[in-house]
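User: Okay, second chain of the day. Same drill as before: sequence in, structure tokens out.
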Amino acid sequence: MASNASLLAVIMACTLLGGHTCHGARHLADTTPAAAPPAAAAVPGLPALPTMPTLPPMPAVPTVPAVTVPAMPPVPTVIVPQMPAIPSMPKLTLPPMPSIPTVNVPGLPAVPTMPTLPPMPAVPTVPAVTVPAMPMVPTVTVPQVTLPLPPMPAVPLVPKVTMPPMPTIVVPKVTVTMAPMPAIVVPKVTLPPMPFVPNVNVPMPFLAPPPSV
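Assistant: Same drill. Structure tokens below.
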């Protein structure tokens, strides 16, 4: 590589000096033997791949012991005594209701005509609103845990209880005599005539249009 650089420097110097010196330099360059190319550098080899370590075997999954649930004890039978008969209530006789007198009510006057209302203004249209999509809710996986349950405690037996008989209830018979109803007299009332209501044209106020959105 150094010989090539020196040769290039000599050629450039000959070019600057003149034609006769360039001819001699060219003759010198043609007769000078070329330098041998440098030896190629040795490429190192790739390192050997390391061996992977041997993984230990997976431990065995423990078996869950079977849980035996004890049988439920029998439910004791309870004897409920019969209810006594309900005594009958005495029959009461009510006096007749007095007649209601008729009352003459005058007729109602004619309803005045209502004024004509102006038409309602047009309702402005509401612009459509685009609602963004709801974000995705991540899925949470809850691991299932199985715990051994303790045995159920024994339920004590309920002793059998005999209820005493219900006593007989005697309701005394009571006779109630109602006093006669007094006569109701409604006085005749004359109502005054209704006053005349004139037709009044009430102008409706002008409704302003709603503000623009």
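Residues 2-17 form the longest helix (16 residues).

User: Thanks, on to the next one.
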